[in-house]
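Quarterly update from the structural biology core.
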Amino acid sequence: MNTLDAIAQRRSIKKFDPDHKFTDQEFQTFMDHVILSPTSFNIQNWRFVLVEDDALRAQIRGAAWDQVQVTDSSLLFALCADVKAWEKEPQRYWKNAAQETQDILVPMIGQFYEGREELQRDEGIRSIGIAAQTMMLAAKAMGYDSCPMIGFDPDAVSELIKLPENHIVGMLLAIGKAAAPANPRGGQLPLEDVLIRNTF
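Predicted structure, tokenized:
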């Protein structure tokens, strides 16, 4: 599917076919593309928690306003980020780069993030958002639909997935075969309301 078509056709689907399963090859292809999502300094700070256990999904549904897509989608992810990824063996993020590039960028990672807790968290949220869009467009290109979700109790979900220290959960993402079309679009703002040229 053309990328522009995937963007235009992507909608948030609430009802999925609960019997549909991804094949192993489909899942591998999907994830191989997802991990190409960009991150600042290539720190790859996203963490994709694939929730496969039915009982755990049911518990998460209870923490997500009983939204049916949590249990009925083919795939359910909790999209998380390791806010301390920047300090964990940073040389591995540039291991394939030329030595002169490594010598510049690897020390720069620590200089940029050290002691800047708010920036570290913001970076995690940014990475989650970029990865989520990659996932939704990849799903659409493969003939699947998706539903990004912030309607859940993040503390409860964090406890259920045993979220480690220094990690955050940004959203849930349900992916699968649509069992019903999306509702009509609620209404797009005119471009002139959202496009600012140069300054406000």
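The two ends are 37 Å apart (CA to CA).
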